[in-house]
Amino acid sequence: PIHPDLGAELAYARDGDVLYLTHGAGRPYTAESLGNWFRDQCNAAGLPRHCSAHGLRKAAATRMGERGATQLELMSFLAHSSPKEAATYTKNAARPVLADRAVDRLPSTKTEQNVSNLMKRLGKQEK
Known about the structure:
mainly alpha; 58% helix; elongated
């Protein structure tokens, strides 16, 4: 499957075109050279040091984990050969978000009675 944003960009290519990411004299990027190029662009934009291509991958994996992606799905996205690293993103997913989704699966759940709201109400009672 192709993400809709990528699909919209690819629609500009003609049928049969082959697309490559290249630099210099048409040389393909390696993982290291693409990461270095991205770092240079972040520096030129004045972004903090923690902004990186690797950081984007981690942020995307975190967002996917928070939306219920499985370890195998994250492994595929991250191109990892073991579920160990992908487990980081599923373990650290936003617990209240996942709890709300689990409660919403119950047949008689009302949206105003989700876990986040319950936690807020309990927090107010404790003060």
